[in-house]
Amino acid sequence: MKLLTTLGDLGEAEKLVPIRRSQIAGVSYKTSGDPTLDLLESLAEEGVSAKTHATQNPAGMDLERWSEMGIRQEFADKQHRICTAYEKLGIIASCTCTPYLSGNKPQPGEIVGFSESSAVAYVNSVLGARSNRHGGLDALSAALIGKVPLMGYLLDKNRRPDVLVKSDFRVRSDADYGALGYHIGKNLNMDSVPYIEGLGHASRDELKMLGAASAASGSTALFHVQGLTPEAKSGHCLFRQGRPTETLNVDRRDIARVYEELSSSMRCDLIALGCPHCSLNEIKRISKALQSRTVRSAPRLWVFTSPKVYSEADRRGYVREIKASGADVFKHTCMVVMPIEEIGITSVATNSAKAAFYIPRTTQNRCQAQLLSFERCIALATGS
Length: 384
Description:
Blueprint: H1 2-10, E1 16-18, E2 21-24, H2 29-46, E3 53-56, H3 66-69, H4 73-88, E4 113-114, H5 117-125, H6 136-145, E5 147-149, H7 156-159, E6 163-167, H8 174-187, E7 194-197, H9 204-217, E8 224-225, H10 230-233, E9 246-250, H11 252-261, E10 270-278, H12 280-290, E11 300-305, H13 307-315, H14 318-324, E12 328-331, E13 347-350, H15 353-362, E14 368-371, H16 374-382
Helix pairs in contact: 2-4, 5-9, 8-9, 8-11, 9-15, 12-14
């Protein structure tokens, strides 16, 4: 409560308001370490429990097949302890950065307490719910208390756009949406809310990629897309000052520079898809792309998704088809929060601008990245 009220004071909140949903980051042992483990186990011993429908972010490994990934026993033991402690606190072991695809989907206008930057961007922008960009500790606090400070993006006045983004190029791939998001996030101020023109008919999966990248390169927690996102479609998405305070024009040259910046290596040990975690439609697309094709043993092709999406994809035969090609599908984790540098991976090709940005930074440059379109990732994996 002290943490939440202190944050509220800093954000000039008048009060705390109740919430029914939370998403908790700080689950991977790689990113959270022993201090988080000690805190969670001490909280669990106190017998406290979440007052919200709370879910966990990805762990640092597939909780069932970690040895097949090459994860050390010591890491695995501590990772299991973290997840167990969260469960004792009443936080569901969803282990995904896309909780809205796994039963924790806020309704339009609903106030929630989400951490995980890509999830915050998605629920604010694509679902029209309301969350500030929480860190792991204050999201956990909000889940245990059942309240958040009424400030920031929970207020109408702060959800209105102030920057007009004009997209003056034809989007050719999913990675282009990520590259566009990366460019937007990098060039906007911290609290800016962009209004994006010229995207046409982007899917929710493509908007997911855009939001994840803009939240990674900057701190974008909310964006509006002309004719697509809820608040932009409502007709009430008016600029704060009556007109944009600035205009950001994006052309193909800007996107090309993003690909260059996020491609620190032309080598490739691993091709990784699923950051944010793959949706069922994305798993289906991968399965279809790999039909009657064989994935080479090097580089490997790994697909990452949530346990719930994995279960449905397995029921529909998509997982079997992907594995038959020589690729693999893992759950609970992704290439960003697992210790890929410790299992012999030095370079990753991915269609995720978010992953391409974070991989060198979370591995202290022991692993490099390369941003490619989905089609080029599949061609690289199959040698075609």
